[in-house]
Amino acid sequence: MSKEYTFIEVSNQASIGIIKLNRPNVLNAINRPMVTEIVKATEAFDRDDSVKVIILAGNGRAFAAGADIDEMAEAGAIEMELLNQFTEWDRLAWVKKPIIGAVQGFALGGGFELALCCDVLFAAHDTEFGFPEVGLGVMPGAGGTQRLTKLMGKSKAMEWLLTGDRMSAQEALHHGVINRIIAKELLLEETLKFAHKIAQQPSLSLRLIKESVYKAVDYSIYEGMQYERKNFYLLFASHDQKEGMRAFREKRKPNFKGE
Ligand code: CAA
């Protein structure tokens, strides 16, 4: 389905919802309506029982070259505060299904922040990440200073954020920002393969694993372990736990139902 700023589709074998940014003439600069489209499509996939995994991808020369500078260049502080546009981005953090990012070309500013909203990130060799906001007289506003710091630690994050320098895919891999580097022509294909692999897993487990991993980022080890344990126990209420363990004992493939 073609929206104004995105393409939304479900993969051939179903189960994978794909959202592609589509504003190639401005390198997929993210304007507010595009954010609305991305968030709505992601939430719709999250509600759709036939979809197990979501892919967020770019298109053309960029994943996204940042938030749309034209949209905010002349804005005032009070206007920005009242608009509070980034709360809409925050809704991506509430999505329960795994989101896999497939990024290529430029992933700058808000484009990098959008990539960092993904749970797993694959990048083409040519990807350039970075936070050029400092050179525009601003700073990241959609989670960049927080998520990058949690991923690579204070000192390294400082360096990238204060200089605005671009980070290659190789550097991003080295710092644990991305999961894999993939040849550009194979990026979507390989991302789909990976998405299909996790889509085979019982969806309640995926959901509670994702939730628990994020608790590890924000909670103390003790609180995180308590959270993990409750989720572990909760899964014993599911059909898929009984099916998974019985199938193991009966030496057959499990038939998961997502319940
Ligand atoms: N906003 C609006 N338009 C953008 C844009 C952006 N972030 N990035 C690129 N474009 C537009 C350019 O203005 C240009 O449009 P025209 O053809 O109409 O002139 C078109 O996309 C192609 O871009 P370039 O001609 O500049 O392409 P290039 O290959 O020479 O350079 C680039 C590519 C290095 C990515 C360069 O476009 C660039 O520096 N873009 C801005 C990057 C940036 O500063 N991003 C941060 C934005 S602020 C932000 O994201 C805040 C936040 O935290 C949410």
From TrEMBL:
Q: Which family does it belong to?
A: Belongs to the enoyl-CoA hydratase/isomerase family.
Give the molecular function GO annotations: enoyl-CoA hydratase activity
Q: What class of enzyme is it?
A: lyase
Q: Look up the EC number in the record and give it.
A: 4.2.1.17
What CDD domains does the record tag this protein with?
crotonase-like
Q: Which InterPro entries match?
A: ClpP/crotonase-like_dom_sf, Enoyl-CoA_hyd/isom_CS, Enoyl-CoA_hydra/iso, Enoyl-CoA_hydra_C
**What is this protein's record name?**
Enoyl-CoA hydratase echA8
PROSITE patterns (alphabetical): ENOYL_COA_HYDRATASE
